[in-house]
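Slide 14.
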Amino acid sequence: MHIAHLSLSNFRNYAQLELDLPLHRVVLRGDNAQGKSNLVEAIYFLATARSHRAAGERELISWFASREGMPVARLLARAQTARGPVEVEIALRGIYGTAEEAHFQKRIRINGIPRRAVDLVGQLNVVIFSSQDIELIGGAPSLRRRYLDLTNCQIDRRYLRSLQRYNKVIQQRNHLLKLISERRAEPDQLDFWDRELIEVGSYLVAQRQRTMVELNHYVHPIHDQLTAGKEELSISYQPSVGREDFTDRLKNMREKEIAQGMSLVGPHRDDFQFSVNGIDMNLFGSRGQQRTIALSLKLAEARFIHSKTDDHPILLLDDVLSELDSARRHHILESIASYEQVIVTAIDLDRFAPGFLAQASLFEVGEGRIELHNDRGL
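Slide 15: predicted structure.
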């Protein structure tokens, strides 16, 4: 899979951009705050209909465009996949309120046909690594659940539909729990929502467990290579139900759930743990260890998606080499050489091996403009 053409209008610091992306290795070089990460973000947004770093969609609109009435942005990608060519277009438009507080309407087209966001996921499979991904290791469990959900959604439409249904069930069940705690509803009214939670939640848990087993299969040798055999990485899924039966667990937790007015059992409370040589990295990993673990996980994810789709995902590596020593940089560049399209951002080129640059297309990024340095790197 690879993106052949990218078009941006009023996205971040790009007022207007038309860019043809070559197959295989692409290096985006530029100083800080010039638009490298924005370009990577745009590709991720086209694949998932969400940003991996923006708190709200208003942040995605060019500041200059937002000064002129209702803000509007447009993103378009033409890509080649194992299934054939695909064109994805997303338009963001403020439909009411001030420019600063507008509600945004998101319109998606796939091959020119209006579609929903649920139809978009899986059209362009991407794996992204950015500086925020270190939080996957030491951050909140919600970040790890979100990561696992996004990975599964790219390869399993049933998982995506089940996740959407599950979130609605939790919302309705939490509302009912609050009513029961206020004595405005009866506890037996939970029975219906418990059955729904068990049915949909069991599928999510089962798929997460399968994915974790397969990710472990790929992540172990990758991390072994990145650490020159010094660290043995394993990932363990920790469901909130554990070994106890889902139904029994809900019954045993009912009084506590009513008292707190929220659902305490189910995949929305799950987590997973990273261990290196038997030590919990979520709690005791150094920043360098956590960064390497996050990178190993993303490379394993790319191989996992390829195994499920027969199509290489687009690999987006945003400032991946800056905090790694020379040995780990060498192993990273070797690991990504086999992917169909890899897009790497960097401030300095001296962190790349000459052989890698010789087979890469180098783009210079500055002030929202992108220029091809030459056809085959340096």
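Speaker note: The two ends are 25 Å apart (CA to CA).
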